[in-house]
Design goal:
296 residues; mainly beta; Elongation Factor Tu (Ef-tu), domain 3; Jelly Rolls; 2 domains; twelve-stranded antiparallel β-sheet; six-stranded antiparallel β-sheet; 2 helices; 7% helix; globular
């Protein structure tokens, strides 16, 4: 097994530094319920729940050359994971148990096919180290456990976006996509750019809200009284300004030709439900919907 660390400047495997992952243990997301009591009424009133955080535990070991090397690896691990800024991690596993293949007498040793570490899906987690840890040393061997806590959103998120699918399709060998991500071989689900009056797009993960998750909608050539509606969720966006051009809804930010345009709208946003989302627009314009997919 292995783990990749992704920062703004680098992508690092723990195995590149002789730090060997024993497991990658992902907890479920905690729920934060909201209840209240009413005097004279049995039970409690359920106001729903929000998602909290999740933890990821990564037990590891190091097998070093000597006592000096142990100290160097220990300090390197501190440098890799103890950061004030959040970073992404990815899980890697072997398809089969590590073992050597049979070779001829004059061949060099080699591993059996399928025993190398591979990324488990095109997913990543935004985390920060949450525990103080040490490495218990036994001669030249040492082991410990890293515990991470998700920051911002607790979900696993796709590394690729819907527009990556629009441009390149789904190619499992580029390590952006994999089985278990809610995608299919049906190319009808791969369209995230449309220009008809009615169209639909597929959200492979949980519901997406632009205030919390990555969602960018680009509308080219929109003019006054343009309207885009997601009939699946009931969300309707309207542009009421006099300018014609490109509208971009990027998270909570709305622009027309790169200038702020929130006041020239109905001040409503588009969200995405899980699965198919049916859209209509009253002006036939080119619409691009670029989002990541999020998973529990």
């Amino acid at each position: 097994m292995d783990m990749q660390i992704i920062t703004d400047n680098d992508e690092i495997l723990l195995s590149d530094h002789d730090i060997h992952v024993k497991d990658f243990i992902v907890s479920s997301i905690s729920l934060l319920p909201d209840y209240s009591q009413i005097e004279g009424r049995s039970g409690q009133v359920d106001h729903g729940a929000t998602f909290g955080t999740r933890t990821i535990r990564v037990p590891f070991y190091i097998d070093n050359y000597d006592n000096h090397d142990f100290a160097l690896l220990r300090d390197k691990l501190f440098d890799l994971v103890i950061k004030r800024k959040s970073f992404y991690i990815r899980e890697m596993r072997r398809l089969k148990r590590k073992q050597y293949a049979f070779v001829d007498i004059d061949e060099s040793p080699k591993q059996e096919t399928g025993t190398e570490n591979l990324y488990v899906g095109g997913k990543r987690y935004l985390v920060r180290i949450s525990n103080e840890f040490d490495i218990e040393q036994m001669f030249s061997y040492g082991e410990g456990e890293l515990e991470f806590e998700t920051t911002e959103l607790p979900f696993a998120e796709s590394i690729g976006t819907s527009m990556d699918i629009e441009r390149n399709g789904i190619r499992y060998n580029d390590e952006l996509w994999s089985y278990g991500m809610g995608l299919s071989h049906n190319e009808e689900e791969w369209k995230y750019e449309h220009n008809g009056g009615s169209f639909r797009i597929y959200n492979a993960g949980i519901d997406v809200h632009p205030f919390e998750q990555d969602l960018k909608i680009t509308i080219e050539g929109a003019s006054k009284n343009y309207e885009l509606k997601n009939t699946t969720t009931g969300d309707t966006f309207k542009y009421t300004g006099d300018t014609t051009g490109t509208i971009v809804l990027n998270g909570a930010n709305i622009t027309m030709n790169s200038l702020q345009a929130f006041r020239d709208t109905n001040k409503q946003y588009i969200t995405l439900a899980r699965g198919w989302n049916q859209f209509t627009q009253n002006q036939k314009r080119k619409v691009q919907i670029d989002t990541r997919f999020y998973y529990l």
